[in-house]
Amino acid sequence: MNELNQSASSQMAPTNMNQDHLVDLMQRLEYTMENAYSCEEAFALLDEYVELVASHEEARRLMPLVQNHLDMCPDCRDEFEILLHVLKTADSDE
Question: Within 10 A of 29 (CB to CB), how many other CB atoms are there?
């Protein structure tokens, strides 16, 4: 019976979860706000947020839920960085 329990628990244990992954997960949970934006909600405001950042406005203060989402979501953060780069490149061409 012990062998069966050990087999079941070893199948349920995450195999590639190291300490760095756990620390990252705990930090994300710590920073998660109760009314945090989903990717869809953050993406809907991303162009406005990028314009604030590009114009050196206090985007973090003005749109904290978008910034919080970007701090936690690497995919949306990548989209933000791409949009910011495009906007800065377009501004420098003018």
Answer: 9
Structure tokens at 9: 């628990």
Q: Helical H runs in the chain?
A: 2-12, 19-31, 39-54, 59-62, 64-72, 74-93
Nearest to 42 by CA among 13, 19, 73, 17: 73
CA-only gyration radius of the chain, Å: 20
Q: What CA–CA distance (Å, rounded) separates 82 from 8?
A: 44
Q: Letter for the amino acid at 74?
A: P
Q: Which pair of tokens denotes residue 80? A: 């933000």
User: 70 near 80, Cβ under 8 Å?
Assistant: yes
**What per-residue confidence (pLDDT) applies to 24?**
74
pLDDT in tens, the chain (94 residues): 555 555 444 455 555 678 888 887 777 666 666 778 999 999 999 999 999 999 988 999 999 999 999 998 999 999 999 999 999 998 777 6
